[in-house]
Amino acid sequence: MKNQNNNLINAQTTIRRAWPDDEPMISRFVDSALPKSDFFVQHGKHKSYIQRYKVFIAELFGQVIGWSVIDRQNKLIHLLVHPDYRRHGIGTELLKVSAPKIIRSKSDQSTGNPINWYQKHGYTLLAKSTGKNRNIDILIKGDSIHFD
Fold first, then answer.
1. Are residues 39 and 92 in the same domain?
2. Which residues in the chain come in under a pLDDT of 50?
3. What's residue 48's pLDDT?
């Protein structure tokens, strides 16, 4: 039964680039998917992210169930899948489409630290607990730094 549900969710989920008109759906998604203790995107920022960065959304039946945000330096600054749809490969697909070279990840989330998940996808922890709150980790693709 679980495999049938996974297959159905995967078959019906689309991942695409977000556009300014998607901002209300993205805001509702982020508000509903994150507990207040994990809130990390100020209201009003979603639209500026869409305008300035590469934002991808995962949709299921017209509802946003996941998103990723890549800044101008090809750094992943947000990746979130709604808790009801985790473990269906949606985060993996968002990560593939986003294809960041660097990941900036919050390490003290209520759902746990995602570092192991990123490492399973080929990223290496470069710096641990940076930032004013000492809860941001930096990962890179592969195991070494290459300068273009």
1. yes
2. 1, 148
3. 86
**One-letter identity of residue 113:** N
SS3 content of the chain, % helix, strand, coil (to 5): 35, 30, 30
Instruction: Compute the distance between CA of residue 145 and CA of residue 13 in angstroms, rounded to an integer.
Output: 34
Q: Calculate Rg over the CA atoms of the chain.
A: 15
| Same domain, yes or no: 93 and 106 | no
Q: 70 and 119: one domain?
A: no
Query: Which residues, at least 6 apart from 28, have a Cβ–Cβ distance to it below 8 Å?
Result: 64
Distance set, CA 125 to CA 95, 104, 110, 130 (Å) = 16, 10, 20, 12
Q: Would you state the structure tokens that stand for residue 44, as one six-digit string?
A: 């009003």
Domain that holds residue 119: 101-148
- What pTM value is reported for the model? 0.83
Same domain (yes/no): 47, 65: yes
